[in-house]
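(Protein data)
===
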Amino acid sequence: MAIFSVYVVNKAGGLIYQYDNYVPRAEVEKTFSFPLDLVLKIYDEKLVVSFGQRDGIRVGHAVLSINGVDVNGKYTAEGKDILEYLKDPANYPVSIKFGRPRLSSNEKLMLASMFHSLFAIGSQLSPEVGSSGIEMLETDVFKLCELFDQNLKSALEIAEKAGTFGPGS
């Protein structure tokens, strides 16, 4: 099981520490002719696929680059609006790279507070007396269970013995 991110949340639900483990993003690059057969929309200042999955390109994937040049949100490197650029038939054929966008700092804070809220609700609604909350979190991409807790505990113990972190570090 790979660990992609670690979030440390305090009892009030505030994010104390967050670490992203480097994992190559699943990216798909495809050359398109006019008209573009995907529907793109702006979401959180990023241009994302909203309709038309094909060839590994999925709904929710963001535009990462056009013709090998990285994009900045909804703009090309030259500052042009990507949607306007893609409406012009003179710009075709065009090579577009799609992938999952990285989370912004704000999205990381929201995710951490959401985990805390789910934990608190799970603890209160559990029929088990003294429940510690959610036992397993499962999505279409990963499954988080007690094995994670065991591995995290052993990693923290090893780090403490090695003096990697602790008081004063």
Summary: The longest helix spans residues 105-125. The chain has three helices and ten strands. The mean pLDDT is 80.
